[in-house]
Every structure is written in C-alpha cells, then in structure tokens.
C-alpha cells in the first residue's frame, strides 16, 4: 500500500545550500567559491542567507570555521530580521516557543554556548545584528534541543536545519512515524497504523543501543527519560547485549566490565576520529586499528550481534570505505546487516542505508546478482520511509538498470 504522508514542512533555516539533492555540474558562487547550487534560481533564492557568509568566507579564508550550530543560528537571526512575524514554517510552533531547558544546562554546556556566541560575533558581526547575550544563550539552547540533522540516503551528513512544525513531535524508541528530507522539505510518514487522536512519535536518537544507553543520550541531549514500551519492558536489551555461549559462561562482573570498556572505547574512537584524524591528519589505519583491537577484546565476551561489536564494525566499515578497501568494507557490511535487521525497527533508515552500501559494494565488485538483491531490499524500506516518488529511489533504480 502507499506510505502515508502525514506532514510536509518548510525549514526556517538550514546550513547547506538551497537544495539537498545531488546533481552533476553544480554551479558555485563566483565570489567565495564555496557555496554550490543546482542552478541560478536556486542560487538567487539562497542569496539572503548566503550573503551572511560569502564575504566572511573570503576575508577569513582557511580560518573560516564556525560550527554548524553557529551557522544555523546566524541564519535563524537573519530570517527573523527579514520576517519579524511567523514564517510559513512556523504555522504550529514558532522558534521563540521552542523549549530551551535553560534551567537544566550544566556548566560544560553553558561554556559551549558561550564559545558559540563568541564565534557568532567573530564571524558574523559585520553582516548581522545580535540580540543581547541572554537572548543568544536561550536561542543556542533552543537550537541544540530542536535542530535536525540532514543526511543523504547512506546517512552521510549533509547539514542541519530547523523545522519548527516537525519539532513539535515527541520522542519514542518505538516511533510510529519517520522524518525524511526531499530537497529543503521535511516529510513525515507513518511507519505503523495510527488511529485518529493517537499521538505521533518520532525518534530523536539512534535506536540500536540498549535502554540505559538510549536514555543516557536522551537525558544528556534532551533532558528527559523515555517511558515508551521498549524502555519500560527492556524486551530487546538481552539480544542487544548478547553474550557468547561458552562452556564456562562469563561472570556478571566480567560482562559489566566489558560493557564499561565498550562504552569507553566508543567515546575514545569518537575523539580519535575528530582530534587525531581531522585535526592532526593521522593516517586512517590508526583508526582501523582501534576498531580491530576493540573487537578482538570485546569478542572474548560478546557475540558478533552485540550492539557494541556492531558499533565498532560499522566504524571499521567506514574507515575501509574511506581507504577504498572495498573488500574489507563488504566483509564488515555482511557481518552487520543481519543483526541490524533484528535490532532496528521494521522501516529503519539505518537498515536501508546498510543494504544500499552493500548493494553498491557488490555492484562495484562485479557481483551484479547480490548487488541487485541488496539494492532492492533498500528500496523496499525507502519506499515506505521516503515515499515512492523520492529522487533517491529513482537514482537507485537507475543504478540497477545501468549495470
């Protein structure tokens, strides 16, 4: 049956050029050479926002490095200057009405906001009028709680956006809708039967992990603990933290220690990826080594289907893709896909993107039959999540036909 499209929302502001669709032969801004557009019309429509950054990009050169949150906040301020009243994207909820959770911010989060405010003044002071400092603290807190990450069909990061109407939806670890993007539009589709009057829930976080980890993330980023059925029953937790079946089963303390190690190594890898690789240009082979050593250690206690093992496999797959080790990436993907399909909800973008990666790897390695099968599995999920008319689906069907 046709997927149910519940809502389409226009963004108040985004951090990427006007269109999220990839096209050949993009034109770029003649001045800064850093903003890319699909056509002249697209470029004209983005100019009120791009003019905030065009000149500073030229002036600062390689020193131009505001965070995505800073860029998004600058665009919100510019939009509010142009449209003091509600914009078309604020029919149901205005940005000024967003929850900020200001009273729950710890010192570390407040310091980060102050750093963002300093960067906002540093990069945008010539082209933007700022409200007072207290108002900026509130706005940054609101953006942090209500911003949306825009990703492509393989879940690669494209940018950030604010969709006020979509931000109205509450979170559940068993969501009944999914939010996807088409151009600059956010589209909300049902992935379960929804009765009249029933609340609509989306997911704010990656649902792979066990209850305690999910709620740690929700408390840290959104300041609440989820009370959905999955969090109350913890039905999936045992399978998500599956222990190896050994003749001498590991003691509970050993398992607890390994879970602690897993959480630490995930954070260590995240930091290494950012600091070592991005900032200091260390070779990606160092990142792959962290993945392999951690899997070896965790594998003495955890099954391959354990989500902590899967996390490091996924990271290793990403490093292999970056290093163009297609066979290595394929091997990791083949180990990941079955447990992913078990742990994630039925129409999961994470599962679809993994089938997509596998399909493209198979096709690139000349295994057309396996590639076509994997791509069709991705399409089956995406037709529900994205809608049958989404450009991504047309692109994938074209990939199948062209091989």
Automatic annotation (TrEMBL):
It is found in: Cytoplasm, Cytosol; Nucleus. Its main location: cytoplasm. Its EC number is 2.1.1.354. Keywords: Chromatin regulator, Cytoplasm, Metal-binding, Methyltransferase, Nucleus, S-adenosyl-L-methionine, Transcription, Transcription regulation, Transferase, Zinc, Zinc-finger. GO terms for cellular component: cytosol; nucleus. It catalyses: L-lysyl-[protein] + S-adenosyl-L-methionine = N(6)-methyl-L-lysyl-[protein] + S-adenosyl-L-homocysteine + H(+); L-lysyl(4)-[histone H3] + 3 S-adenosyl-L-methionine = N(6),N(6),N(6)-trimethyl-L-lysyl(4)-[histone H3] + 3 S-adenosyl-L-homocysteine + 3 H(+). GO terms for molecular function: histone H3K36 methyltransferase activity; histone H3K4 trimethyltransferase activity; p53 binding; RNA polymerase II complex binding; zinc ion binding. Residues 56-205 form the SET domain. Residues 28-54 form the MYND-type domain. GO terms for biological process: methylation; negative regulation of cell population proliferation; negative regulation of transcription by RNA polymerase II; regulation of DNA damage response, signal transduction by p53 class mediator. Gene3D superfamilies: 1.10.220.160, 6.10.140.2220, Tetratricopeptide repeat domain. The keyword Transmembrane helix does not apply. The keyword Zinc applies. InterPro entries: H3K4_H4K5_MeTrfase (IPR050869), SET_dom (IPR001214), SET_dom_sf (IPR046341), TPR-like_helical_dom_sf (IPR011990), Znf_MYND (IPR002893). Interacts with RNA polymerase II and HELZ. Interacts with SIN3A and HDAC1. Interacts (via MYND-type zinc finger) with EPB41L3. Interacts (via SET domain) with p53/TP53. Interacts with RB1 and HSP90AA1. Protein-lysine N-methyltransferase that methylates both histones and non-histone proteins, including p53/TP53 and RB1. Specifically trimethylates histone H3 'Lys-4' (H3K4me3) in vivo. The activity requires interaction with HSP90alpha. Shows even higher methyltransferase activity on p53/TP53. Monomethylates 'Lys-370' of p53/TP53, leading to decreased DNA-binding activity and subsequent transcriptional regulation activity of p53/TP53. Monomethylates RB1 at 'Lys-860'. This is N-lysine methyltransferase SMYD2. It comes from Ursus maritimus (Polar bear).
